[in-house]
Please model this.
Amino acid sequence: MSTQSNTMADTASATQDTASSAFPSTRIFAWSVRRELWEYRSTWIAPLAAAGFVMLGFVISLVRISGVHMITNLPPDKQMALRLVPYGIAMAAVTITSVIVGISYCLGTLYNERRDRSILFWKSMPVSDLMTVLAKASVPMIVLPLIAFVVICATQLIMLPLHAATLAARGQDAGSLFVQVPLLRSWLLLFYSLVTLALWYAPIYGWLFMLSSWVKRGPFLWAVLPVVAISVVEQIAFNTSYFVDLVKYRLGGSFHEAFVDFPHHHSMGFQWPTPDPVRFFSSPGLWLGLVVAVFFFGVTVWMRRRREPV
Amino acid sequence: MPESTNPMLSIEAKGLRKSFRSTVALAGIDLRIESGRILGLIGPNGAGKSTALNAILGLIPYEGELKVLGRDPWTDRDALMRDVCFIADVAVLPRWMTVAQSLDYVDGVHPRFDRAKAEEFLGRTNIKRSSRVRELSKGMVTQLHLALIMAIDARLLILDEPTLGLDILYRKQFYDSLLNDYFDHSRTIVVTTHQVEEVQHILTDLMFINRGKIVLDCTMEAVEARYTELASPPDQAAAARALKPIYERQAFGRTVFLFDSADRAQLAPLGEIRTPNISDLFVAVIGNPTVQEPGSLAA
Model:
């Protein structure tokens, strides 16, 4: 009798030990994300490289004298638009680079760990499949946009004083530059754009994740060819292009929904885009996309649970 | 108290089945592995060893009943992995990882990881912290993996062909480390390997599996008590054969017989008596379909 109760007490305390010895999920999540960045160093090297090339071009443009005299003769709004161009290029180059890196990451991450069999090592650690997929999904959804934001801000922060110093060295009005290039305002717009873009692209990332966790070879072909196939069948069978339009609408980015009257007409001169968060967050496209994304990521977790090395 | 929560049982299976499409990988096996044992799971290629281990590790769904440390490995895998560790294959460590990163990562996610212990073990090797796994030799990768795994205070360790493709020095060192630095009679180790003779001396239990079925399941003491090898000169061979050996082979001009549950006093005059080694027993049991159904001496 006493042995019986001792055994029960031991079992109970052992269970308690097991429960209390688990690390908090935030810690597991943080380490899981960190190891993704170790493995996929392009997540931060590529945006930095893009920024580096923009800086290179910018410095060369500052050294070249021609064009500077022309700018001073232009009307103020045209002058401002021209002066903003390199800052806009920096923003676009780094953002596009980070989206490309994100797509390549999504296609590779769950496929590569099966191909090199390292999935067997990851699965020997007390990290659940849900946690793994969440950590991986946070790379294109959170980490890459954040890296892009920081890199763009830092790049522009270096560009502006260089720009001003060059103008001052040529005896031009450098002070007007700080008015014409309002960095804080552009950073707020950038942040809004990156957040809406990440949410808008969630179903695309989810689709790529699902294939990455599923297929035995050629995840890129699996990601692209079904889209082409459906488009072709629809075009021939019904002579319509709803599916192609849907894909274009999604790939075209969040800007149509997230800003008032996007794109702007150049004939009207430069205008800062006006964010329209109410429209964006009430657009069916966003919410349908998110539902589809949750489905794709759900299938991904299911696949990660069951798929073996390829 | 339900039987399955018995703390002395590390693994318990009843009618464990697994089929892939039309192929039956596990044909309903029963297992009872107590804590503190070192079990060798031996079988030819495709016998179902890896399938059994994958089911135990919660890597694949299965039919039948299975409890590992009192938990269902498929539904309760996340909790189970804090108490179970495994090396499923050689060279599965991520090739891009540095040695230092692997220590940081396991330290980061595993509550039972003792970093100092892993560092101490690595200190006895030539592995540099700054090396990437892809720069290490196959033997060093296994040493690193073993250093990581042995520093985890797990209750069950599963090793599926952990030394495949390594040279004999690394293989011997691997099992010596396992026995001397890791095993402490409260842990359970299950190991599969093709190099049977190298694990023979560390095992406490032996299990043969063939075509999805367990064909032998007994302790090493029982193996010694039950099986006898007899090397007979040619003139005694006929007499020995009359005692119904389960297997015979020719070696150095003598006939070597393997007897199951034979009377050693009866065999002694017919030649030289030995305890068979596992690989001969394996060939006799697996290669001979007439051997009686197993399990009669199990635990």
Summary: The first strand of chain B starts at residue 9 and ends at 20. Confidence is low (pLDDT under 50) at residues 290-299 of chain B. Chain B has eleven helices and 13 strands. Chain B touches chain A through 36 residues (CB under 8 Å).
